[in-house]
From TrEMBL:
<dbReference type="Pfam" id="PF00571">
    <property type="entry name" value="CBS"/>
</dbReference>
<dbReference type="GO" id="GO:0034707">
    <property type="term" value="C:chloride channel complex"/>
</dbReference>
<keyword id="KW-0813">Transport</keyword>
<keyword id="KW-0407">Ion channel</keyword>
<dbReference type="InterPro" id="IPR001807">
    <property type="entry name" value="ClC"/>
</dbReference>
<keyword id="KW-0812">Transmembrane</keyword>
<protein>
    <recommendedName>
        <fullName>Chloride channel protein</fullName>
    </recommendedName>
</protein>
<dbReference type="InterPro" id="IPR050368">
    <property type="entry name" value="ClC-type_chloride_channel"/>
</dbReference>
<feature type="transmembrane region" description="Helical">
    <location>
        <begin position="478"/>
        <end position="495"/>
    </location>
</feature>
<feature type="transmembrane region" description="Helical">
    <location>
        <begin position="406"/>
        <end position="429"/>
    </location>
</feature>
<feature type="transmembrane region" description="Helical">
    <location>
        <begin position="381"/>
        <end position="400"/>
    </location>
</feature>
<dbReference type="GO" id="GO:0009535">
    <property type="term" value="C:chloroplast thylakoid membrane"/>
</dbReference>
<keyword id="KW-0129">CBS domain</keyword>
<feature type="transmembrane region" description="Helical">
    <location>
        <begin position="450"/>
        <end position="472"/>
    </location>
</feature>
<feature type="domain" description="CBS">
    <location>
        <begin position="571"/>
        <end position="631"/>
    </location>
</feature>
<dbReference type="InterPro" id="IPR000644">
    <property type="entry name" value="CBS_dom"/>
</dbReference>
<keyword id="KW-0406">Ion transport</keyword>
Length: 720
């Protein structure tokens, strides 16, 4: 059968047309042929591909090859390595200043109480300490409220000024939050400080967009390595939090050169941190022991427990964030009130549980019983602290206080592991001699506490390799690796299916509280409005839990760009169309010729019927082989009638819809391709004029963002 092709030019749509989003086209008039008892007539038309004026494949290949060469040259530029070193230097200095600022504020407000410890505060009479314990965190909330208002005030400035000044104000807010004892941690702000410095250095010295992601990774590595004084863990953190979650569109980044930049930045920042803050690790590693390889199932059970606790922690945070947002929007409570209420709440809780206050890692040392002359906490109190710390930290984040979740995760993990270890030791000691559990040697609770810290960090922040390397780097004991790997792997696995980085397009509201609603069809009754903040109820937003895990703000800027780009600008105008009577072999041949992974199914009137993908054909070929069918005579109608779900198009786009709306729908329904129709004819059917997929959306956004980033005066001078 000969392959016919036609040339179709896309007409510009009038700007006044309302964008349409069509849902659930009617059942396909496919012939059931061999798989149905009620046959439909098979349409008779040759398959086609619709094309627009595009360069031939050879030219396209040449362009891609040239671009890849330029990418390698950009990474070989000495300015790239110099930029990475500067990121390490300035991040190390900034983190030292940040931590010293926290210490100064703590000394000013608490008058030496943190050095006496939470145990001393617990034993003091309430009438002598309640004023300071309650009102110091509340005072911190008041100052943070003012700083947050200042951050919002600079939102009207240019992007670069807003980013620079906003980062400084956020770091100051974190200093006050932590210095006044509120239940958050300093490592998250340290990462954001490093990423902010990386962005500024990139904008000043190295404006190449292909190296921006590498510098961001270097900044995050520097933040973690200087915060924990653990350079190796910082390098792996950069890989897990920045490089792995990045879009495939950033595949041009050179892994080798990026790794060099990350290592240099992490090492330099760690050295500066040692000089400025001392060579001691973030927390004291207690004496511990491992008795028997037979304990491994106990550590796996601890990992399971930490995974469940991590899940509860994340879900409570997401829930409280939603509650506070509703109180602000529905009840009308002003945002500046919330940090004050958050600090006041933490102070009230601290009257009964002073261990939840952030006083560095002294309270973690207390849990691990690594401080001399300090009595350890009982198992039931440790379990209580797990619940109370989760509540206090979630309230701090929901009420707008500034800080990270790394230190609270380590605290909760230490309390969980210590309580678990004490319970196991007690259960074995009190077991019936007939069961012979007394012969099982178990490690000290401190060993379980250390493993619990790593498991909780991995579960909450989804950085399992970082958690393992951090504890291994601090303990320098190879024996801890196997228990760590087992517990961390289980904890991370439990939470991984429930937590997503919602900075992906369409799942998180744009900054400054600007919501966004998908453009919907005006005349369709079965469509529903979807806000950008709407997400499946069983998912937790990892970026809400720990914002430093989403330091690349390109997605936010991309969303703003996507709101201004219409589908007609991003869709593919060269696509394959087939009929129900088309042979499957011919459809595959057309897809191969056009380098497409799908084909649009149309009828005699060129109205949309469905979408045929290579995956559908591949799965059907296995079915046909099992049924001993001749694959050379199989038709498109047969693959579509064999399974009611195949070939159907749940949604279609129109050319005047913005691509942010289209991509939100694609994310919600897990679609990789969406046909673009000119207008609705009947039952949301129409004539296809293009095909929208994720690759063309990403390419369009990158191209337009690059064009906007070019300096107009420089380009004009070159042209002249």
């Amino acid at each position: 059968m000969a392959l016919a092709s036609v040339l179709r030019l896309f007409p510009s749509s009038p700007p006044h047309l309302s964008p349409l989003l069509c849902k659930s086209p009617p059942p396909f008039p496919f012939s059931s042929n061999r798989f149905s008892s009620s046959p439909f007539p098979i349409l008779n038309q040759r398959s086609t591909f619709v094309t627009a004026a595009l360069p031939d494949s050879a030219d396209e290949q040449t362009v891609v090859s040239d671009d890849s060469v330029v990418s390698e040259d950009d990474f070989n530029d000495p300015r790239v390595i110099v930029s990475a070193c500067l990121v390490g230097v300035f991040t190390g200095i900034a983190v030292v200043l940040f931590n010293n600022g926290v210490h100064e504020i703590r000394d000013f407000f608490w008058d030496g109480i943190p050095y006496r410890g939470a145990s001393w505060l617990r034993e003091e009479p309430l009438d002598s300490v309640w004023v300071r314990v309650i009102f110091v965190p509340a005072c911190g909330g008041l100052i943070v409220s003012v700083l947050n208002a200042a951050r919002n005030a600079v939102s009207e400035a240019s992007y670069s000024a807003k980013a620079a000044l906003g980062s400084v104000l956020k770091a100051l807010a974190a200093c006050v939050t932590l210095g006044t004892g509120n239940s958050l941690g300093p490592e998250g702000p340290s990462v954001e400080i490093g990423s902010s410095i990386a962005k500024e250095i990139h904008s000043l010295l190295d404006k190449n967009p292909q190296t921006k992601l590498s510098l961001l990774a270097a900044g995050s590595a520097a933040g973690i390595s200087s915060g924990f004084n653990a350079a190796v863990a910082g390098c792996f953190f950069a890989v897990e939090s920045v490089l792995w979650p990045s879009s495939p569109a950033d595949s041009s980044v050179s892994l080798t050169n990026t790794t060099s930049m990350v290592i240099l930045s992490a090492v330099i920042a760690s050295v500066i941190s040692e000089v400025g803050l001392g060579a001691e690790p973030a927390f004291k590693v207690p004496e511990y022991d491992f008795r028997s390889p037979g304990e491994l199932p106990l550590y796996l059970l601890l990992g399971l427990l930490c995974g469940l606790v991590s899940l509860a922690f994340s879900k409570l945070t997401s829930y409280l964030l939603g509650v506070v947002d509703n109180l602000n929007k529905d009840v009308g409570i002003p945002k500046p009130v919330f940090p004050i209420v958050g600090g006041l709440t933490v102070g009230v809780i601290a009257l009964a549980y002073p261990e939840i206050l952030y006083w560095g890692f002294d309270n973690v040392d207390l849990l691990l019983e690594s401080r001399p002359f300090v009595k350890g906490l009982s198992g039931d109190l440790l379990f209580q602290l797990v619940a109370v710390k989760i509540i206090a930290t979630s309230l701090c984040r929901a009420f707008g206080l500034v800080g990270g979740y790394y230190a609270p995760s380590l605290f909760i993990g230490a309390a969980t592991g210590m309580a678990y270890g004490k319970f196991i030791s007690f259960a074995i000691a009190q077991s019936d001699p007939a069961i012979h559990l007394s012969i099982l040697e178990v490690a000290s609770p401190q060993a379980y506490g250390l493993v619990g810290m790593a498991a909780m960090l991995a579960g909450v922040c989804q950085v399992p390799l970082t958690a393992v390397l951090l504890l291994f780097e601090l303990t320098q004991d190879y024996r801890i690796v196997l228990p760590l790997l087992g517990a961390v792997g289980l904890s991370s696995w439990i939470t991984s299916g429930q937590m997503k980085r919602k900075d992906v397009k369409g799942t998180k509201a744009l900054e400054d509280g600007n919501g966004y609603t998908i453009q919907q069809p005006e005349a369709s009754d079965n469509t529903t409005s979807l806000s950008s903040t709407e997400a499946p109820p069983y998912f937790n937003n990892l970026c809400e839990v720990e914002s430093s895990l989403c330091i690349d703000d390109s997605s936010i800027r991309t969303k703003d760009l996507e709101k201004r780009i219409f589908v007609k600008e991003a869709m593919r105008t060269r696509y394959v169309t087939v009929m129900t009577s088309t042979l499957l072999t011919e459809a595959v041949t057309l897809m191969l010729m056009e380098k497409q992974s799908c084909a649009i199914i149309v009828d005699n009137d060129n109205l949309l019927l469905g979408l045929l993908t290579l995956t559908d054909i591949h799965e059907f070929s296995k079915f046909a082989k099992d049924k001993s069918l001749d694959s050379k005579v199989l038709l498109v109608s047969e693959i579509c009638s064999s399974d009611g779900a195949k070939c159907k198009v749940p949604w279609t786009a129109t050319p005047t819809m913005d691509i942010l709306s289209a991509e939100m729908i694609m994310n919600k329904y897990d679609l990789s391709h969406v046909p673009v129709i000119s207008e609705r004819v009947k039952d949301c059917r129409g004539q296809p004029i293009g095909l929208l997929d994720r690759e063309c959306i990403s390419l369009t956004c990158r191209a337009l963002a690059t064009r906007e980033s070019l300096d107009f005066d420089t380009v004009k001078a070159i042209v002249e």
